Amino acid sequence: MHGRGRPMTSEAPPTPTRRLCIGVTGHRASHPGVAANHARIEACFGAILARISDGVATAPAIPGAPPTAPTRLHCLLADGTDQLAARLALDHGWELSCPLPFGRQLNTAINSAPVSYAAARALLAGGLVADGPTAGRAAAIEALCDKARLFELAERDTHIAALFLARCESPDAAELARLFNAETSQRVALAGIALVEQSDIVIALWDGITTAHVGGTGHTMVAALDRGAPVLWIDPAEPEAWRILHAPESLATLTNEEAADGRDAALVALVHTALDPDGEAPQPRPAGDRGLATLTQERWHARSNPLAHGYRRVEALFGDDAKLSPFRSIRQRYEPPEAIGSGSGAALLAEVSALPQGDPMLAGAIDRAVLRRFAWADGVSSRLSDAYRGGMMVSFLLSSLAVVGGIIYLPFFSTEGKWPFALLELLLVAGILIITFVGQRRRWHGRWFETRRVAEYLRHSPLLILLGVTRPPGRWPRGTTTSWPEWYARQAIREIGLPRVAMTPAYLRQALEGPLAEHVASQRDYHFDKAHRLKRVHHRLDLLSGVLFLLAVISVVAYLALKLATSLGHIESGLLAHASKYFTLFGVIFPSFASAIAGIRFFGDFERFAAISEVAAEKLDAVHRRIKLLLSAPDSALDYACVAELVHATDAIVVAEIESWQSVFGGKQISIPA
Questions:
Q1: Disulfide engineering: 528 pairs with which of 416, 536, 579, 617, CB 3.0-4.6 Å?
Q2: 548-573 as b/e, with b when 16 or more CB fall inside 10 Å?
Q3: pTM above 0.85, yes or no
């Protein structure tokens, strides 16, 4: 609180700084095509990177957003294509980020291609190498490493280093060479996946011969196309005839003739689409939709509005167990963005800071780039959810009250006394119209959907960031009229990018048993609890509406029985005349409120939401069991690929749950109950 009784106010976190990310993969310098056409390839790469830079410079500005950040290039720093692209990118002022298949020292040793066992040992020890060409290759790699952000997959370094030395000591041992090549190819493939996931566009220098070599250029191209990333393919034999591929099926049509006209424009269009918050929306925004400004222009409220608690009050009345009072206060206090780092996010940030050989700047970056934006989106979305869903709950009840209010005078007043009740009915109907008009005009439904998507994407994104995992641009969900929530979350994550860490067994274990296991367990428990609560709500609402309909039937049957008794002379006719008005009233009250309760049950779709949460909880429980199983393994068996797969599985469950509840509520715009 500031001052006396004044609620704390917060400012919206800044819009994420947009950034284009490019991935580069390609053949080594020893490849015949690369060696024969090196000058042409370099000129081609230079022209393409210049065209990309022009596209970034000409991308339409986003009002109120920070300037576009320098383009980030991802590569593995192998000799040949990777190093050529890295040097050109640095010349353009781009940022260099490198997912390395091994720890830095081992990566330099392997990619320096030492010609002797002594040179290999010297490189692993960080010493000088007598062989000139080997020393030159090592120096080139190290020079680029000094200028790059390094994400090192080092958890298998001890094993790989032993194989590397053994192969250098026995270069003619075929089986040893095959084992070494298989192990290193697998590591390169993992680094290639990290490159693809971080990139809007992948540039590949590939001879078109095969995609079967694990970790090779063709293999990485397939991974990119499978994940929805466009690939700019350059044939080393004819580099000027580059093409843009959009799907795995494109690899089957490489021999087709394709006109060169329009390639530059298509490349610029890809750049603009990646940088545009609305670039992937298939339909234009509806009137009143402010797009990206929806989130930053929202007003912050420290607490929920008691007048908008209708939906959550229904859950409290019909879903909670007997130990909780259904009439307890359900007012929420929203955690302000500036407080989350020392509040609900403090434990996570402490775990991030404690990761062995971790990035000392990572916890602060996660707080600024992710947690604060999550807190803002979550608080705004929660209030909009109350307004939209609570407004519909009130409208259902007002519609029944309007019907009852119009006839409740019957047993008590003559027709001359009807006007106050008609006025009451008019006011209640006007209330419904006002709620509907305001809700539609202020886009409660659309704003809730959009801000909730942002919040849920950001909720689990620290787990992805810790392990250098992200959802590839082509795998993000897409709305029919809005894509800015996905763009916002993606760019927020990109502000951090690949962390500056070495993935050691200790790092993986601590990340696995700390942030990942805790998040999965908490979300699993939340969804199980939510499923059980919503099932109770559905059952009890169904029971109440059924009882009210039954009472309506009983009132009609009672009236007919009374009418029959009067006709037979068992009851005086005056009694029937007096009672008929009450029976008429009951015949309206019971079905009206039964219909309102049934409408609330239908609108809330509690049963289907319970099923969605139950499925999500069961999937998360399966992931949690896998985490526990992996944690029981020794450090030597911990593998980045396994941990990354668990993070991807968690991400897939979260996104599937978001898509499921959006499909349920997507068509339920705020409207007049009918």
A1: 617
A2: bbebbeebeeebeebbeebeeeebee
A3: yes
